[in-house]
Design brief:
It is a single chain. The protein has about 575 residues and is an alpha/beta fold. The protein has three domains: about 270 residues, 3-Layer(aba) Sandwich (Rossmann fold); about 35 residues, no CATH class; about 160 residues, IlvD/EDD C-terminal domain-like (Glucose Oxidase, domain 1, 3-Layer(bba) Sandwich), CATH 3.50.30. Helix content is about 35%, strand content about 10%. Strands 7-8-12-11-10-9-13-14 form an eight-stranded mixed β-sheet. The chain has a four-stranded parallel β-sheet with strand order 2-1-3-4, sandwiched between helices. A hairpin with a 4-residue loop joins strand 13 and strand 14. Helix 4 crosses helix 10, helix 12 runs antiparallel to helix 13 and helix 12 crosses helix 14. The longest helix is centred in the middle third of the chain and has 20 residues. The two termini are about 45 Å apart. Bound molecules: FE2/S2 (inorganic) cluster. The site of FE2/S2 (inorganic) cluster has 9 residues, from loops.
Protein backbone atom coordinates (compact mmCIF):
# COMPACT_ATOMS: atom_id res chain seq x y z
CA UNK A 1 0.00 0.00 0.00
CA UNK A 2 1.31 3.46 -0.95
CA UNK A 3 2.09 5.75 1.98
CA UNK A 4 -0.41 8.55 2.47
CA UNK A 5 0.95 12.09 2.83
CA UNK A 6 -1.54 13.72 5.29
CA UNK A 7 -0.99 17.16 3.74
CA UNK A 8 -2.32 15.82 0.41
CA UNK A 9 -5.57 14.57 1.91
CA UNK A 10 -8.75 16.28 0.80
CA UNK A 11 -9.84 16.36 4.46
CA UNK A 12 -6.63 18.13 5.46
CA UNK A 13 -8.05 21.59 4.82
CA UNK A 14 -10.99 20.85 7.11
CA UNK A 15 -9.11 19.49 10.12
CA UNK A 16 -5.42 20.24 10.02
CA UNK A 17 -4.89 23.98 9.54
CA UNK A 18 -4.15 26.64 12.13
CA UNK A 19 -7.31 28.71 11.71
CA UNK A 20 -10.23 28.97 14.11
CA UNK A 21 -12.48 26.87 11.90
CA UNK A 22 -9.87 24.04 11.89
CA UNK A 23 -9.80 24.13 15.68
CA UNK A 24 -13.59 24.24 15.80
CA UNK A 25 -14.01 21.27 13.43
CA UNK A 26 -11.58 19.18 15.48
CA UNK A 27 -13.44 20.14 18.65
CA UNK A 28 -16.72 19.04 17.10
CA UNK A 29 -15.28 15.71 15.98
CA UNK A 30 -14.18 15.20 19.58
CA UNK A 31 -17.73 15.98 20.70
CA UNK A 32 -18.64 12.54 19.33
CA UNK A 33 -16.12 10.93 21.66
CA UNK A 34 -13.20 10.51 19.28
CA UNK A 35 -9.71 11.18 20.63
CA UNK A 36 -7.45 13.44 18.58
CA UNK A 37 -5.07 10.60 17.70
CA UNK A 38 -7.76 8.50 16.11
CA UNK A 39 -8.60 11.00 13.36
CA UNK A 40 -5.78 13.52 13.10
CA UNK A 41 -3.92 13.18 9.81
CA UNK A 42 -5.84 10.01 8.85
CA UNK A 43 -7.80 9.48 5.62
CA UNK A 44 -11.47 10.11 6.30
CA UNK A 45 -13.63 7.45 4.67
CA UNK A 46 -17.26 8.41 4.20
CA UNK A 47 -19.79 5.61 4.31
CA UNK A 48 -22.63 6.90 2.18
CA UNK A 49 -25.59 4.89 3.42
CA UNK A 50 -28.99 4.58 1.76
CA UNK A 51 -30.35 2.59 4.72
CA UNK A 52 -34.05 3.14 5.33
CA UNK A 53 -36.89 1.24 6.91
CA UNK A 54 -39.01 2.67 4.10
CA UNK A 55 -36.82 0.65 1.73
CA UNK A 56 -36.93 -2.99 2.78
CA UNK A 57 -34.19 -3.89 0.28
CA UNK A 58 -31.75 -1.54 2.03
CA UNK A 59 -32.99 -1.95 5.62
CA UNK A 60 -29.98 -4.11 6.60
CA UNK A 61 -27.32 -1.65 5.42
CA UNK A 62 -26.60 -0.32 8.93
CA UNK A 63 -25.12 -3.72 9.73
CA UNK A 64 -23.00 -3.69 6.59
CA UNK A 65 -21.78 -0.19 7.51
CA UNK A 66 -20.36 -1.61 10.74
CA UNK A 67 -18.43 -4.19 8.71
CA UNK A 68 -17.10 -1.43 6.44
CA UNK A 69 -15.95 0.54 9.49
CA UNK A 70 -13.96 -2.48 10.75
CA UNK A 71 -12.06 -2.57 7.49
CA UNK A 72 -11.43 1.18 7.53
CA UNK A 73 -10.09 1.11 11.10
CA UNK A 74 -7.92 -1.89 10.26
CA UNK A 75 -6.33 -0.04 7.33
CA UNK A 76 -5.62 3.10 9.36
CA UNK A 77 -8.51 5.27 8.18
CA UNK A 78 -11.21 7.16 10.03
CA UNK A 79 -14.76 6.06 9.04
CA UNK A 80 -17.77 8.38 9.15
CA UNK A 81 -21.21 7.15 8.18
CA UNK A 82 -23.71 9.56 6.67
CA UNK A 83 -27.25 9.13 5.28
CA UNK A 84 -28.60 9.97 1.87
CA UNK A 85 -32.15 9.76 0.62
CA UNK A 86 -33.24 6.17 -0.03
CA UNK A 87 -35.58 5.08 -2.79
CA UNK A 88 -37.75 2.13 -1.80
CA UNK A 89 -39.12 0.56 -4.94
CA UNK A 90 -42.08 -1.00 -3.17
CA UNK A 91 -43.36 2.04 -1.37
CA UNK A 92 -42.57 5.33 -3.12
CA UNK A 93 -45.23 7.05 -5.20
CA UNK A 94 -45.62 7.88 -8.00
CA UNK A 95 -42.37 6.06 -8.88
CA UNK A 96 -38.81 5.91 -7.56
CA UNK A 97 -37.56 6.89 -11.01
CA UNK A 98 -38.94 10.37 -10.41
CA UNK A 99 -36.41 10.66 -7.58
CA UNK A 100 -33.31 8.87 -8.96
CA UNK A 101 -31.78 12.16 -10.06
CA UNK A 102 -32.65 13.79 -6.73
CA UNK A 103 -30.80 11.01 -4.91
CA UNK A 104 -27.87 11.33 -7.31
CA UNK A 105 -27.70 15.06 -6.50
CA UNK A 106 -27.83 14.27 -2.76
CA UNK A 107 -24.97 11.76 -3.13
CA UNK A 108 -22.86 14.14 -5.24
CA UNK A 109 -23.29 17.15 -3.01
CA UNK A 110 -22.95 15.18 0.25
CA UNK A 111 -19.60 13.87 -0.95
CA UNK A 112 -18.39 17.16 -2.37
CA UNK A 113 -19.40 19.30 0.58
CA UNK A 114 -17.89 17.12 3.29
CA UNK A 115 -14.38 16.27 4.51
CA UNK A 116 -14.12 12.81 2.96
CA UNK A 117 -11.06 11.43 1.17
CA UNK A 118 -12.92 8.41 -0.23
CA UNK A 119 -16.41 6.94 0.02
CA UNK A 120 -17.94 3.53 0.37
CA UNK A 121 -21.36 3.58 -1.29
CA UNK A 122 -23.97 1.34 0.36
CA UNK A 123 -26.96 0.66 -1.85
CA UNK A 124 -29.10 -2.17 -3.19
CA UNK A 125 -32.66 -1.49 -4.31
CA UNK A 126 -33.19 -0.66 -8.00
CA UNK A 127 -32.57 3.10 -8.16
CA UNK A 128 -30.17 3.41 -5.25
CA UNK A 129 -27.24 1.78 -7.05
CA UNK A 130 -27.40 3.90 -10.23
CA UNK A 131 -28.04 7.05 -8.19
CA UNK A 132 -24.94 6.32 -6.09
CA UNK A 133 -22.85 5.72 -9.21
CA UNK A 134 -24.15 8.89 -10.88
CA UNK A 135 -23.45 11.06 -7.84
CA UNK A 136 -20.04 9.53 -7.19
CA UNK A 137 -19.11 9.94 -10.86
CA UNK A 138 -19.86 13.65 -10.70
CA UNK A 139 -18.11 14.19 -7.34
CA UNK A 140 -15.14 12.12 -8.59
CA UNK A 141 -13.71 11.36 -5.16
CA UNK A 142 -12.29 7.79 -4.79
CA UNK A 143 -15.32 5.50 -4.37
CA UNK A 144 -16.14 1.83 -3.99
CA UNK A 145 -19.61 0.28 -4.09
CA UNK A 146 -21.01 -2.36 -1.74
CA UNK A 147 -24.52 -3.48 -2.60
CA UNK A 148 -26.82 -5.16 -0.11
CA UNK A 149 -27.15 -8.46 -1.98
CA UNK A 150 -30.22 -10.44 -3.00
CA UNK A 151 -32.64 -12.10 -0.59
CA UNK A 152 -32.67 -15.84 -0.06
CA UNK A 153 -34.77 -17.65 -2.66
CA UNK A 154 -38.46 -17.61 -1.91
CA UNK A 155 -39.90 -21.03 -1.18
CA UNK A 156 -43.49 -22.28 -1.06
CA UNK A 157 -44.30 -25.97 -0.63
CA UNK A 158 -40.75 -26.85 -1.64
CA UNK A 159 -41.01 -24.78 -4.84
CA UNK A 160 -38.49 -21.94 -5.24
CA UNK A 161 -39.98 -18.50 -5.88
CA UNK A 162 -38.37 -15.37 -7.26
CA UNK A 163 -39.53 -12.02 -5.95
CA UNK A 164 -41.51 -10.11 -8.54
CA UNK A 165 -41.31 -12.60 -11.39
CA UNK A 166 -43.15 -15.45 -9.67
CA UNK A 167 -45.28 -13.08 -7.65
CA UNK A 168 -46.79 -11.75 -10.87
CA UNK A 169 -47.52 -15.25 -12.15
CA UNK A 170 -49.12 -16.20 -8.84
CA UNK A 171 -51.20 -13.05 -8.83
CA UNK A 172 -52.44 -13.73 -12.38
CA UNK A 173 -53.64 -17.12 -11.14
CA UNK A 174 -55.39 -15.33 -8.27
CA UNK A 175 -57.01 -12.89 -10.75
CA UNK A 176 -58.65 -15.76 -12.63
CA UNK A 177 -59.68 -17.56 -9.46
CA UNK A 178 -57.19 -20.43 -9.50
CA UNK A 179 -55.54 -19.33 -6.24
CA UNK A 180 -57.79 -18.28 -3.36
CA UNK A 181 -57.29 -15.43 -0.89
CA UNK A 182 -56.16 -17.74 1.92
CA UNK A 183 -53.48 -19.44 -0.14
CA UNK A 184 -52.35 -16.07 -1.47
CA UNK A 185 -51.80 -14.91 2.13
CA UNK A 186 -49.72 -17.99 2.83
CA UNK A 187 -47.59 -17.38 -0.27
CA UNK A 188 -47.17 -13.74 0.81
CA UNK A 189 -45.13 -14.95 3.80
CA UNK A 190 -42.90 -17.24 1.70
CA UNK A 191 -41.94 -14.87 -1.11
CA UNK A 192 -39.32 -12.56 0.43
CA UNK A 193 -37.53 -14.64 3.05
CA UNK A 194 -34.74 -12.36 4.22
CA UNK A 195 -33.15 -8.96 4.03
CA UNK A 196 -31.90 -7.97 0.60
CA UNK A 197 -33.12 -6.99 -2.84
CA UNK A 198 -35.18 -8.98 -5.35
CA UNK A 199 -33.67 -12.39 -5.96
CA UNK A 200 -34.20 -12.59 -9.70
CA UNK A 201 -32.13 -10.83 -12.37
CA UNK A 202 -34.28 -7.76 -11.92
CA UNK A 203 -33.02 -4.21 -11.89
CA UNK A 204 -31.33 -4.41 -8.49
CA UNK A 205 -29.39 -7.58 -9.34
CA UNK A 206 -28.61 -6.16 -12.77
CA UNK A 207 -27.31 -2.86 -11.41
CA UNK A 208 -25.24 -4.66 -8.77
CA UNK A 209 -23.78 -6.65 -11.67
CA UNK A 210 -23.21 -3.44 -13.63
CA UNK A 211 -21.33 -1.91 -10.69
CA UNK A 212 -19.12 -5.02 -10.55
CA UNK A 213 -18.64 -5.14 -14.34
CA UNK A 214 -17.73 -1.46 -14.41
CA UNK A 215 -15.00 -2.25 -11.90
CA UNK A 216 -16.59 -0.29 -9.04
CA UNK A 217 -16.90 -3.22 -6.56
CA UNK A 218 -14.72 -6.00 -5.30
CA UNK A 219 -15.15 -9.24 -7.31
CA UNK A 220 -18.22 -11.32 -6.31
CA UNK A 221 -20.11 -8.37 -4.84
CA UNK A 222 -23.17 -8.68 -7.08
CA UNK A 223 -24.54 -12.08 -6.13
CA UNK A 224 -23.58 -12.92 -2.54
CA UNK A 225 -26.92 -13.28 -0.70
CA UNK A 226 -27.66 -10.41 1.67
CA UNK A 227 -27.56 -12.62 4.75
CA UNK A 228 -24.51 -14.69 3.78
CA UNK A 229 -21.60 -13.95 6.13
CA UNK A 230 -19.39 -13.46 3.07
CA UNK A 231 -21.21 -10.23 2.25
CA UNK A 232 -20.18 -8.68 5.57
CA UNK A 233 -16.63 -9.89 4.94
CA UNK A 234 -16.69 -8.26 1.49
CA UNK A 235 -17.98 -5.03 3.06
CA UNK A 236 -15.11 -5.16 5.55
CA UNK A 237 -12.57 -5.63 2.76
CA UNK A 238 -14.17 -2.80 0.78
CA UNK A 239 -13.65 -0.47 3.75
CA UNK A 240 -10.02 -1.50 3.92
CA UNK A 241 -9.64 -1.03 0.21
CA UNK A 242 -11.19 2.47 0.34
CA UNK A 243 -8.29 3.61 2.52
CA UNK A 244 -5.78 2.24 0.02
CA UNK A 245 -7.64 3.91 -2.84
CA UNK A 246 -7.00 7.32 -1.26
CA UNK A 247 -3.25 6.84 -1.64
CA UNK A 248 -3.72 5.59 -5.20
CA UNK A 249 -6.10 8.44 -6.10
CA UNK A 250 -8.39 5.79 -7.62
CA UNK A 251 -11.26 8.00 -8.74
CA UNK A 252 -14.48 6.87 -10.48
CA UNK A 253 -13.34 8.63 -13.67
CA UNK A 254 -10.26 6.37 -13.79
CA UNK A 255 -12.34 3.21 -13.37
CA UNK A 256 -15.53 3.98 -15.31
CA UNK A 257 -14.00 4.56 -18.74
CA UNK A 258 -15.66 4.08 -22.11
CA UNK A 259 -14.04 0.60 -22.24
CA UNK A 260 -15.45 -0.24 -18.82
CA UNK A 261 -18.95 0.68 -20.05
CA UNK A 262 -18.47 -1.61 -23.06
CA UNK A 263 -17.65 -4.38 -20.58
CA UNK A 264 -20.72 -3.58 -18.51
CA UNK A 265 -22.99 -3.66 -21.56
CA UNK A 266 -21.56 -7.04 -22.60
CA UNK A 267 -22.18 -8.38 -19.11
CA UNK A 268 -25.70 -6.93 -19.15
CA UNK A 269 -26.38 -8.85 -22.36
CA UNK A 270 -24.88 -12.08 -21.03
CA UNK A 271 -26.85 -12.03 -17.78
CA UNK A 272 -30.17 -11.14 -19.45
CA UNK A 273 -30.18 -7.94 -17.41
CA UNK A 274 -33.07 -5.58 -16.83
CA UNK A 275 -33.98 -3.11 -19.58
CA UNK A 276 -33.61 -0.42 -16.93
CA UNK A 277 -29.85 -0.89 -17.11
CA UNK A 278 -29.90 0.87 -20.48
CA UNK A 279 -31.30 4.07 -18.99
CA UNK A 280 -29.05 3.96 -15.93
CA UNK A 281 -25.79 3.22 -17.78
CA UNK A 282 -26.50 6.07 -20.23
CA UNK A 283 -27.06 8.39 -17.27
CA UNK A 284 -23.88 7.34 -15.45
CA UNK A 285 -21.82 7.67 -18.63
CA UNK A 286 -23.34 11.11 -19.19
CA UNK A 287 -22.02 12.21 -15.80
CA UNK A 288 -18.51 11.33 -16.99
CA UNK A 289 -18.83 13.01 -20.38
CA UNK A 290 -18.50 9.67 -22.19
CA UNK A 291 -19.92 9.27 -25.66
CA UNK A 292 -22.21 6.30 -24.97
CA UNK A 293 -25.40 6.03 -27.04
CA UNK A 294 -28.41 3.72 -27.27
CA UNK A 295 -27.11 1.97 -30.38
CA UNK A 296 -23.97 0.87 -28.49
CA UNK A 297 -26.24 -1.53 -26.60
CA UNK A 298 -27.53 -3.09 -29.78
CA UNK A 299 -24.05 -3.43 -31.29
CA UNK A 300 -22.81 -5.24 -28.19
CA UNK A 301 -26.02 -7.30 -27.97
CA UNK A 302 -25.52 -8.69 -31.47
CA UNK A 303 -22.10 -10.12 -30.59
CA UNK A 304 -22.72 -11.22 -26.99
CA UNK A 305 -24.40 -14.54 -26.13
CA UNK A 306 -26.91 -14.85 -23.31
CA UNK A 307 -25.36 -17.12 -20.69
CA UNK A 308 -27.05 -16.78 -17.30
CA UNK A 309 -30.02 -19.03 -16.63
CA UNK A 310 -31.69 -16.88 -13.98
CA UNK A 311 -35.30 -15.62 -13.90
CA UNK A 312 -37.07 -13.78 -15.42
CA UNK A 313 -35.25 -14.86 -18.60
CA UNK A 314 -34.14 -18.24 -17.21
CA UNK A 315 -34.97 -20.80 -14.55
CA UNK A 316 -32.82 -20.23 -11.47
CA UNK A 317 -32.48 -17.51 -8.82
CA UNK A 318 -29.67 -15.23 -7.66
CA UNK A 319 -28.77 -17.56 -4.80
CA UNK A 320 -28.11 -20.33 -7.35
CA UNK A 321 -26.13 -17.85 -9.45
CA UNK A 322 -23.81 -17.11 -6.54
CA UNK A 323 -23.26 -20.81 -5.78
CA UNK A 324 -22.52 -21.40 -9.48
CA UNK A 325 -19.68 -18.87 -9.43
CA UNK A 326 -21.37 -15.49 -9.68
CA UNK A 327 -20.34 -12.67 -11.96
CA UNK A 328 -16.60 -13.52 -12.11
CA UNK A 329 -17.49 -16.88 -13.71
CA UNK A 330 -19.60 -15.05 -16.32
CA UNK A 331 -16.87 -12.52 -17.02
CA UNK A 332 -14.32 -15.30 -17.40
CA UNK A 333 -16.50 -16.79 -20.15
CA UNK A 334 -16.85 -13.37 -21.75
CA UNK A 335 -13.16 -12.45 -21.54
CA UNK A 336 -12.59 -12.77 -25.32
CA UNK A 337 -15.26 -10.07 -25.76
CA UNK A 338 -14.17 -7.80 -22.91
CA UNK A 339 -11.61 -5.04 -22.58
CA UNK A 340 -9.29 -7.08 -20.39
CA UNK A 341 -7.07 -4.25 -19.18
CA UNK A 342 -9.72 -2.07 -17.55
CA UNK A 343 -8.62 -1.24 -14.02
CA UNK A 344 -11.00 -2.05 -11.16
CA UNK A 345 -11.25 -0.72 -7.61
CA UNK A 346 -9.10 -3.49 -6.15
CA UNK A 347 -6.20 -2.20 -8.27
CA UNK A 348 -6.26 -5.23 -10.58
CA UNK A 349 -7.44 -5.47 -14.16
CA UNK A 350 -10.60 -7.25 -15.23
CA UNK A 351 -8.53 -10.11 -16.64
CA UNK A 352 -6.50 -10.46 -13.44
CA UNK A 353 -9.71 -10.61 -11.40
CA UNK A 354 -11.59 -13.22 -13.40
CA UNK A 355 -9.10 -15.28 -15.46
CA UNK A 356 -9.24 -18.20 -13.02
CA UNK A 357 -12.81 -17.76 -11.76
CA UNK A 358 -14.42 -21.21 -11.49
CA UNK A 359 -17.90 -22.19 -12.64
CA UNK A 360 -19.58 -24.79 -10.43
CA UNK A 361 -22.83 -25.25 -12.32
CA UNK A 362 -23.01 -25.14 -16.10
CA UNK A 363 -26.78 -25.18 -16.08
CA UNK A 364 -26.81 -21.80 -14.34
CA UNK A 365 -23.81 -20.19 -16.07
CA UNK A 366 -23.51 -21.47 -19.62
CA UNK A 367 -20.28 -21.71 -21.59
CA UNK A 368 -19.73 -19.41 -24.57
CA UNK A 369 -20.12 -22.34 -26.95
CA UNK A 370 -23.41 -23.49 -25.38
CA UNK A 371 -25.37 -20.28 -24.72
CA UNK A 372 -29.04 -19.98 -23.90
CA UNK A 373 -29.39 -17.58 -26.84
CA UNK A 374 -26.79 -16.50 -29.41
CA UNK A 375 -27.50 -12.81 -28.80
CA UNK A 376 -27.77 -10.63 -25.72
CA UNK A 377 -30.89 -10.06 -23.68
CA UNK A 378 -31.74 -6.48 -24.68
CA UNK A 379 -32.08 -5.15 -28.21
CA UNK A 380 -32.80 -1.68 -29.58
CA UNK A 381 -35.73 -1.21 -31.97
CA UNK A 382 -36.31 1.67 -34.36
CA UNK A 383 -38.92 2.67 -36.91
CA UNK A 384 -41.56 5.31 -37.49
CA UNK A 385 -43.15 4.48 -34.13
CA UNK A 386 -39.87 5.01 -32.24
CA UNK A 387 -37.58 7.34 -34.25
CA UNK A 388 -35.19 7.73 -31.29
CA UNK A 389 -35.40 4.08 -30.32
CA UNK A 390 -37.15 1.65 -28.01
CA UNK A 391 -35.81 -1.27 -26.01
CA UNK A 392 -36.94 -4.87 -25.94
CA UNK A 393 -35.86 -7.81 -23.79
CA UNK A 394 -35.85 -10.64 -26.28
CA UNK A 395 -34.80 -13.27 -23.77
CA UNK A 396 -37.92 -12.66 -21.67
CA UNK A 397 -40.27 -12.58 -24.69
CA UNK A 398 -42.27 -15.31 -26.43
CA UNK A 399 -40.34 -16.28 -29.59
CA UNK A 400 -43.58 -16.66 -31.59
CA UNK A 401 -44.39 -12.96 -31.02
CA UNK A 402 -40.95 -11.59 -31.90
CA UNK A 403 -42.09 -11.21 -35.50
CA UNK A 404 -45.70 -10.13 -35.36
CA UNK A 405 -48.13 -7.87 -37.17
CA UNK A 406 -51.45 -7.11 -35.57
CA UNK A 407 -54.14 -4.52 -34.88
CA UNK A 408 -53.52 -2.00 -32.10
CA UNK A 409 -55.77 -1.65 -29.10
CA UNK A 410 -54.95 1.68 -27.47
CA UNK A 411 -55.08 2.82 -23.86
CA UNK A 412 -54.65 6.61 -23.74
CA UNK A 413 -53.44 6.49 -20.13
CA UNK A 414 -52.36 4.02 -17.45
CA UNK A 415 -55.55 4.74 -15.54
CA UNK A 416 -57.68 3.84 -18.55
CA UNK A 417 -55.72 0.59 -18.92
CA UNK A 418 -56.01 -0.18 -15.22
CA UNK A 419 -59.77 0.44 -15.21
CA UNK A 420 -60.57 -1.76 -18.23
CA UNK A 421 -57.95 -4.52 -18.43
CA UNK A 422 -60.07 -6.96 -16.40
CA UNK A 423 -63.21 -6.37 -18.45
CA UNK A 424 -64.39 -9.61 -20.03
CA UNK A 425 -65.77 -7.45 -22.89
CA UNK A 426 -62.39 -6.03 -23.88
CA UNK A 427 -62.32 -6.44 -27.69
CA UNK A 428 -58.89 -8.10 -27.95
CA UNK A 429 -57.51 -11.44 -29.04
CA UNK A 430 -54.09 -13.07 -29.11
CA UNK A 431 -53.14 -11.09 -32.25
CA UNK A 432 -53.89 -7.71 -30.70
CA UNK A 433 -51.02 -5.31 -30.03
CA UNK A 434 -51.73 -3.49 -26.76
CA UNK A 435 -50.53 0.12 -26.82
CA UNK A 436 -50.36 2.37 -23.78
CA UNK A 437 -49.53 6.10 -23.97
CA UNK A 438 -48.32 8.69 -21.47
CA UNK A 439 -45.99 6.47 -19.45
CA UNK A 440 -42.73 8.24 -20.31
CA UNK A 441 -40.42 10.56 -18.33
CA UNK A 442 -42.64 13.66 -18.67
CA UNK A 443 -45.97 12.01 -19.35
CA UNK A 444 -46.56 9.76 -16.38
CA UNK A 445 -44.63 11.70 -15.01
CA UNK A 446 -41.43 10.11 -13.74
CA UNK A 447 -41.11 7.17 -16.16
CA UNK A 448 -42.78 4.51 -14.00
CA UNK A 449 -42.71 0.75 -14.47
CA UNK A 450 -46.09 0.60 -16.15
CA UNK A 451 -44.82 -0.99 -19.36
CA UNK A 452 -45.63 -4.54 -18.31
CA UNK A 453 -49.29 -4.05 -19.20
CA UNK A 454 -51.06 -6.95 -17.46
CA UNK A 455 -52.49 -9.60 -19.73
CA UNK A 456 -56.20 -8.87 -20.27
CA UNK A 457 -58.31 -11.12 -18.08
CA UNK A 458 -60.34 -12.20 -21.12
CA UNK A 459 -57.18 -13.57 -22.73
CA UNK A 460 -55.90 -15.23 -19.54
CA UNK A 461 -59.24 -17.02 -19.28
CA UNK A 462 -58.65 -18.38 -22.80
CA UNK A 463 -55.21 -19.63 -21.78
CA UNK A 464 -53.36 -16.88 -23.69
CA UNK A 465 -50.33 -15.98 -21.56
CA UNK A 466 -48.57 -13.37 -23.71
CA UNK A 467 -49.19 -10.83 -26.46
CA UNK A 468 -47.30 -7.85 -27.90
CA UNK A 469 -47.42 -4.81 -25.62
CA UNK A 470 -45.94 -1.39 -26.45
CA UNK A 471 -45.49 1.75 -24.35
CA UNK A 472 -43.16 4.62 -23.57
CA UNK A 473 -42.92 3.45 -19.94
CA UNK A 474 -40.31 1.25 -18.26
CA UNK A 475 -40.81 -2.27 -16.95
CA UNK A 476 -39.65 -3.87 -13.74
CA UNK A 477 -36.59 -6.01 -14.30
CA UNK A 478 -38.48 -8.87 -12.68
CA UNK A 479 -41.13 -8.83 -15.44
CA UNK A 480 -41.35 -10.86 -18.62
CA UNK A 481 -43.31 -11.06 -21.86
CA UNK A 482 -43.25 -9.59 -25.38
CA UNK A 483 -43.04 -6.03 -24.18
CA UNK A 484 -41.63 -3.04 -26.08
CA UNK A 485 -40.49 -0.26 -23.75
CA UNK A 486 -38.96 3.23 -23.58
CA UNK A 487 -40.48 4.31 -26.91
CA UNK A 488 -38.74 7.60 -27.66
CA UNK A 489 -39.70 10.36 -28.08
CA UNK A 490 -42.50 9.73 -25.61
CA UNK A 491 -46.14 10.41 -26.40
CA UNK A 492 -46.52 13.29 -23.91
CA UNK A 493 -44.13 15.48 -25.92
CA UNK A 494 -45.68 14.55 -29.27
CA UNK A 495 -43.83 11.37 -30.20
CA UNK A 496 -45.50 9.22 -32.87
CA UNK A 497 -46.84 6.87 -30.18
CA UNK A 498 -49.27 9.65 -29.28
CA UNK A 499 -51.23 9.32 -32.53
CA UNK A 500 -51.73 5.55 -32.66
CA UNK A 501 -55.41 4.68 -32.85
CA UNK A 502 -57.23 1.46 -32.07
CA UNK A 503 -57.35 -0.57 -35.28
CA UNK A 504 -54.05 0.75 -36.73
CA UNK A 505 -51.69 -2.02 -37.78
CA UNK A 506 -48.33 -2.39 -36.06
CA UNK A 507 -45.37 -4.65 -36.88
CA UNK A 508 -42.78 -5.80 -34.36
CA UNK A 509 -39.80 -7.48 -36.05
CA UNK A 510 -37.07 -8.13 -33.50
CA UNK A 511 -34.61 -9.69 -35.93
CA UNK A 512 -34.88 -6.62 -38.19
CA UNK A 513 -34.92 -4.40 -35.05
CA UNK A 514 -38.04 -2.71 -36.36
CA UNK A 515 -41.15 -1.20 -34.79
CA UNK A 516 -43.46 0.04 -37.53
CA UNK A 517 -46.83 1.76 -37.57
CA UNK A 518 -48.57 1.07 -40.89
CA UNK A 519 -49.84 4.61 -41.27
CA UNK A 520 -48.32 6.84 -43.95
CA UNK A 521 -46.21 9.88 -43.08
CA UNK A 522 -48.82 12.41 -44.21
CA UNK A 523 -51.48 10.88 -41.98
CA UNK A 524 -49.05 10.74 -39.04
CA UNK A 525 -48.28 14.44 -39.56
CA UNK A 526 -51.99 15.27 -39.81
CA UNK A 527 -52.80 13.46 -36.57
CA UNK A 528 -49.84 15.03 -34.76
CA UNK A 529 -50.93 18.52 -35.83
CA UNK A 530 -54.38 18.18 -34.24
CA UNK A 531 -53.45 16.18 -31.14
CA UNK A 532 -53.20 18.37 -27.99
CA UNK A 533 -50.34 17.69 -25.58
CA UNK A 534 -51.30 16.86 -21.99
CA UNK A 535 -50.83 19.69 -19.45
CA UNK A 536 -47.74 19.45 -17.19
CA UNK A 537 -48.34 17.43 -14.02
CA UNK A 538 -46.39 19.81 -11.77
CA UNK A 539 -46.10 23.60 -11.67
CA UNK A 540 -43.81 23.91 -8.63
CA UNK A 541 -41.12 22.21 -6.58
CA UNK A 542 -39.01 19.23 -7.45
CA UNK A 543 -41.67 17.91 -9.84
CA UNK A 544 -41.36 21.07 -11.95
CA UNK A 545 -37.57 20.85 -11.91
CA UNK A 546 -37.91 17.27 -13.13
CA UNK A 547 -40.31 18.18 -15.94
CA UNK A 548 -38.21 21.15 -17.04
CA UNK A 549 -34.92 19.27 -17.22
CA UNK A 550 -35.33 15.50 -17.57
CA UNK A 551 -33.98 14.09 -20.83
CA UNK A 552 -35.70 11.41 -22.88
CA UNK A 553 -35.23 7.68 -22.35
CA UNK A 554 -32.65 7.25 -25.12
CA UNK A 555 -30.45 9.83 -23.35
CA UNK A 556 -30.71 8.30 -19.86
CA UNK A 557 -33.36 10.54 -18.23
CA UNK A 558 -30.80 12.49 -16.24
CA UNK A 559 -31.27 16.23 -15.84
CA UNK A 560 -29.72 18.09 -18.75
CA UNK A 561 -27.70 20.34 -16.41
CA UNK A 562 -26.08 17.35 -14.68
CA UNK A 563 -24.45 15.90 -17.77
CA UNK A 564 -20.73 16.53 -17.91
CA UNK A 565 -21.22 17.70 -21.47
CA UNK A 566 -24.40 18.55 -23.34
CA UNK A 567 -26.09 15.28 -24.38
CA UNK A 568 -26.27 14.55 -28.10
CA UNK A 569 -29.85 14.60 -29.38
FE1 LIG B 1 -36.00 -3.39 -4.09
FE2 LIG B 1 -36.88 -5.26 -5.99
S1 LIG B 1 -38.01 -3.99 -4.62
S2 LIG B 1 -34.92 -4.60 -5.49
Amino acid sequence: MSKIDPTKLRSYTWFNGKEYYNFSRRANLRSMGFSREIFFGKPVIGICNSFSELNNCNAHLRGLAEAVKRGVWEAGGFPVEFPVISLGEQYMKPTTMLFRNLMAMDVEESIRANPVDAVVLLCGCDKTTPAMLMGAASADVPAIVVTGGPTLSGNYKNTPFGTGTDGRKIFDLHRIGQIGAEELQEIEGCMVRSAGHCTVMGTASTMASMAEALGMTLPQNAAIPAVDSRRAALAEQSGKRAVEMVAEDMRPSKVMTRQAFENAIAVDMAIGGSTNAVVHLLAIAGRLGLDLVLDDFDHVSRRTPFLVNVRPSGEHLMEDFFYAGGLPAVMRELLPLLNRDCITVNGKTVAENVADAPCHNRDVIRAMDAPLHPEGGTVVLRGNLAPDGAVFKQTAASPEFCKHTGPAFVFETYQEMHDTIDSMDLPVDANTVLVMKNGGPKGAPGFPEWGHIPMPKVLLAQGVKDCVRISDARMSGTSFGTVVLHVSPESAIGGPLSIVETGDTITLDVEARELRLHVDDAEIARRLAVRPLPPPAYDRGYGKLFLDHVTQAHLGCDFDFLHAVKPKE
